[in-house]
Amino acid sequence: xxxxxxxxxxxxxxxxxxxxxxxxxxxxxxxxxxxxxxxxxxxxxxxxxxxxxxxxxxxxxxxxxxxxxxxxxxxxxxxxxxxxxxxxxxxxxxxxxxxxxxxxxxxxxxxxxxxxxxxxxxxxxxxxxxxxxxxxxxxxxxxxxxxxxxxxxxxxxxxxxxxxxxxxxxxxxxxxxxxxxxxxxxxxxxxxxxxxxxxxxxxxxxxxxxxxxxxxxxxxxxxxxxxxxxxxxxxxxxxxxxxxxxxxxxxxxxxxxxxxxxxxxxxxxxxxxxxxxxxxxxxxxxxxxxxxxxxxxxxxxxxxxxxxxxxxxxxxxxxxxxxxxxxxxxxxxxxxxxxxxxxxxxxxxxxxxxxxxxxxxxxxxxxxxxxxxxxxxxxxxxxxxxxxxxxxxxxxxxxxxxxxxxxxxxxxxxxxxxx
Amino acid sequence: xxxxxxxxxxxxxxxxxxxxxxxxxxxxxxxxxxxxxxxxxxxxxxxxxxxxxxxxxxxxxxxxxxxxxxxxxxxxxxxxxxxxxxxxxxxxxxxxxxxxxxxxxxxxxxxxxxxxxxxxxxxxxxxxxxxxxxxxxxxxxxxxxxxxxxxxxxxxxxxxxxxxxxxxxxxxxxxxxxxxxxxxxxxxxxxxxxxxxxxxxxxxxxxxxxxxxxxxxxxxxxxxxxxxxxxxxxxxxxxxxxxxxxxxxxxxxxxxxxxxxxxxxxxxxxxxxxxxxxxxxxxxxxxxxxxxxxxxxxxxxxxxxxxxxxxxxxxxxxxxxxxxxxxxxxxxxxxxxxxxxxxxxxxxxxxxxxxxxxxxxxxxxxxxxxxxxxxxxxxxxxxxxxxxxxxxxxxxxxxxxxxxxxxxxxxxxxxxxxx
Lengths: 419, 419
Known about the structure:
The structure is a homodimer.
Chain A: E1 2-4, E2 14-16, H1 40-43, H2 49-56, E3 61-63, H3 66-72, E4 80-82, H4 84-90, E5 95-100, H5 111-123, E6 128-133, H6 137-148, E7 152-158, H7 159-164, H8 166-174, E8 178-182, H9 193-205, E9 210-212, H10 219-225, H11 227-238, E10 246-250, H12 255-261, E11 271-277, H13 282-285, E12 287-292, E13 301-306, H14 328-335, E14 340-344, H15 346-360, H16 366-385, E15 390-395, H17 403-410
Parallel strand pairs in A: 5-15, 6-7, 6-9, 7-8, 10-11, 10-15, 11-14
Antiparallel strand pairs in A: 1-4, 2-3, 4-5, 12-13
Helix pairs in contact in A: 2-10, 3-5, 5-6, 6-8, 10-12, 11-12, 15-16
């Protein structure tokens, strides 16, 4: 194991915009009622002007405000780690690196965009943000960020998680956030990300002092996450590597995958791989189409791979990555052949997570464990062909608040879904 | 906020032994039956020879084996962080630094000694280690360390925690450890650290392939933790400071306090402060005497501050730091006036923890929160006298597996103990 750190002054000073580098231009989002292409004014009730601009710009680089950097320095730059223990255990000549995003206050990559969004909203005089959360990774990140900029934070949490997973609720409340179960008007409904987005958007649209913040999917969210890939590039160079052969990351809405991989889109020789759960196989089994981001149809229609906006993953599924749709940027890269996608059943994912924990010490979030599964298989496959591959993956969060899923796996209660 | 990191190659290569620097020589431990001073042979059934040597040596420096450094590099050197947000919120001219030990796989400083102990035992051909754990911080650290050296790990966990706090049990099992509730022979007893030590020592004494590992109190444990203070010294110098004016750390058995503060014992101008909970006030209200380390009286008699080996802290107490005794090294420093001790009620401790979380983002372990409370009060007191103090404290672990205590505090169910 070796780590490459960078001093706090070395956070990249600009985000990387992949828009000018796409194989084909992104299709615009459409108004949910008229189905006309969306303009900036349509988004103004929900988002600050700077974020709307970032959502649509073709500018290649966007400066990171100093106030955002000041907060990111609480944990960034994050380390790049070489998983030499895993390499030895696999008997592979592949060199396996991961970007460790688990050291943020919220324990995942999510605060990278939460901080930026909270800053832009506070600067525009907004006093309160609403959002949705599933297991709580994103809600916790936003609650943390809101505390940094003196904003109130209202989190609509999928009811099943709210009732079964109190720890991330407490975390959000410790940072001063308010958390309510969703859907708010159907107390018997277990909820889904789609219902929680509907609740959060409706709340924000109805109050002048309130905006809405989304933790994945949209272009500006992936933009804010590109610090991950930009830092990784710099650190790989410190480690003596030129470019990775393969970049691997888990994919739910696409933000951690985009964050690590988008800065490598212009490097034609670098393979980009999205890993998703077989129980929510958006990229591998969904269709590419315009669809709503939420269940109730309040959001714009986005051009993306989707399983249908009324899709609910089977309750047996323990991890995150449960979203019915996917980032339009990621969807376009997959459709145009610039990015690959694979899906794994959760039993195989947790098998890899436990192997990684015993070798490398770190207990991965279920999301990150999807990447670890794919990395192990990629390394073993490279060994068969004799390739000396450089593999880079996103360790997007720790699993310390997901231990009940590990318990279920260790007790044999987490069977593989059908393939 | 600013952080000072060191490259993985800069872990100190030797541990600092405080024994030659004590104001008066340490009294020897006594045999529990004969009350004669203990010799190395008395400890051989429980500990490897290298550890017994370290327990008794006067050598000023002890080399850290390369195999131990290799594992420590998974997360060490740990960052030194300046809490500028807290300084501003307090309006103090004090400069507040903390050593962040929360980034280890187990989330605390405990693996620093767990790794060393697992290594020495494995090198001697031991195949299995037993230990006790309360809330699970130490048991998790040892389970992680055993996985690194292919040792079996058997953890006797205080029954009340085993039943009420499943997360750290799952963490230990994820690393391959076995966990059973203690006391093993009294299924209705809620258990204590004292009963769990009795169970673990009895198990180890009865099997040739098995040794026992203790997570605090003993000299070799504090020795292994001195990397914390040695790194902090180096990093303070990078930050432009000469020496801290005050070093503050929480104290249960004394290992994180010793780890940070012992390397500063020879610096006469540096104040050293132990912070303990008012509900388990060993240093502030205990007596200095020989006492057993466990409830059943299997362990040697140690010269230390103690509340009596049958002491059980009130069940209302939410945090760690529940041990009836204290490290003989720490006890001697307090008795001889080289170290101060203060005690706080838990309501005041969690008030400081929530303030710290909202300002600095980090959710502290209840143990670390004791230090934060004392740091805030120290900074405010310095402000009244106009001193520009440099305060260094040990952020010895995160509280992500202690969120139920935060919940109790936020719900108003964590009243102060009587003063």
